[in-house]
Write the structure tokens for this entry.
Amino acid sequence: MRFRLEALGQRPVWLSVDLDYWLSVDHPLEKVMESRMPMALDFLHMLWRMGKSKGLSIPVTETHDQHLPIINQSGRDIPDLATLINVDYHSDLVTEQEVSTFPEANEGTWGTYVSWKWKPDSMFVWVRSCSLLYQGRCDIECHDYRTPNFASPTLAESCGWGELRSQASPTIQPEDLQVMNVVGAAVCLSPEYVHPTTLDNPELLTILDNLRALEGYSVLGPPPWETEVEKGKEVDG
């Protein structure tokens, strides 16, 4: 049976969003601008509305591994938080054995560095934008198309998570935010992995500014790597 986000029910979830889910250089630029950019804008606008209504800080970072400090802090502050959703072209998850070759977390390994993954009911959910089971995976075993799929218990154990799940279709929708119990979220730009011109889109820049402005009233407090927020900027309603 295919996994669906609604199966999470009211489990508290931390939502980590990478713009390359929609804007990846692996998607033709024409398709990105015609269909994927509008989907990204709709989702990010709903994310901003959700953050504003819940009083959540939703930082915007350059790279995905910059989400890790606040993800780990959230796990300490929210005892029943055990589910991480990674909306991303890439899985950003490797095995514990592979981690030993990296001195610190990076954009493709940070999911293995989440400090609360050892909780008994922990779950890492990869919402991916590619349909092939091995495309976008970061663990070395994925280079073989015969590898077990991402949700295999063996891979979960190797990565230190209680459970792994993935969803390729349907594409994540703004309405999904209304059924998930999101207790924390952040967005990353991933400039090395998206079409460069997409980050100059005026509508996208406005929404990102609105998300940055939410950092001013975080219930968890500002993350240690907080970006500079422009003071006095009016946020669109």
